[in-house]
Amino acid sequence: MSANSPTCSVMDISPSTPMNGSPSHEAMLCSPISPAPDCDSNLDYTVTAIDLYTLQGDITVPHHDDQFTAVALVEAGYLGNSPVQPSLAILLKTLDLLKTLHQPKPSFSFEAFKKVLCDLYQTPYQCQWQTTLADAFDVFLNIKHQVNEGIVQVLGRVTENWGVLNGCPSCTYGVKLQGERPIIFRILMLLDGNNWAKRVCNNFHQTGDRQVSLNDYWVDNPEVNKFKLNKICVTRIRLSRDHIPTRRQRCPSA
Fold first, then answer.
1. Which letter, b or e, does each residue of 213-250 get, where b requires 16 or more Cβ atoms within 10 Å of its Cβ?
2. What is the sign of the dihedral through the CA atoms of 123, 124, 125 and 128?
3. Distance between CA 194 and CA 219 in Å, rounded?
4. What's the average pLDDT block by block, 10 residues per block, for the chain (254 residues)?
5. Distance CA 2, CA 240 (A)
6. In what order do the strands lie in the sheet with 42-50?
7. Residue 214 · residue 145 · CB < 8 Å
């Protein structure tokens, strides 16, 4: 390095050095004011990977000294098992495949997917992979939801019940062709009457599902129960107004 070449300022002793003499994390960052061309700011980070498509064991991703490791992994297409110093990274396409499997088969467990990965990698049973997959899958779904929310905001699809009102333009927009005959019903809907749920064995489903849906396709339970309570109140008001005796009033007292 020549005498006239700029140098990389590694630490600033006066403002950010603790009393014990060891520099803080902010002080060890390379100063962005006058970076040196020959100062290497790229750090390779090697971590164990789970890739269902290439079955690659270890990956090396470029990592800057002023960048979080989790961000570097996401830029490379992986999601780490920890925001700080992750020891395992899962390919985002692998998590997306798990999401696709869950849609037609919600009972497909993380343990089953973990066994598939162990068989493909030809490795012994990895107990810690199940927790890693479950945690990474939740983070993956949260990331997808945040991205979709940003897209919806940009496109202006933030009005109430936008999905229902714009699901079928030919039905909801009321656009008619020239010379089209009027129809009796504008929209035809079909429901299964909850008959499919009757065929599900509920011996092992003794607890309710506490998951909260993040999309607008499902109506929350409090919103549904509000109509139920309103119907009960309207019925009681009608009975009291018409003086219709209830079952308890019609039964003779003991």
1. eeeeeeeeeeeeeeeeeeeeeeeeeeeeeeeeeeeeee
2. negative
3. 16
4. 41 39 40 38 81 90 84 91 88 93 87 90 86 90 91 88 76 72 76 60 58 72 74 69 54 46
5. 97
6. 58-64, 42-50, 88-91, 78-80
7. yes
Tally of CA atoms within 13 A in the half-sphere of 79 that contains its CB: 20
Q: Which of 230, 231, 235 is nearest to 246 (CA)?
A: 235
Residue bearing tokens 């409090």:
222
Tokens of 241: 């107004």
DSSP state of 161: T
Q: pTM (2 decimals)?
A: 0.60
Q: Are strands 42-50 and 88-91 parallel, antiparallel or unpaired?
A: parallel
How far is the C-alpha of 120 from the C-alpha of 128, rounded, in Å? 17
**Which residue type occupies 87?**
S
Coil, helix or strand at residue 47: strand
Q: Greatest CA span in the chain, whole angstroms?
A: 108
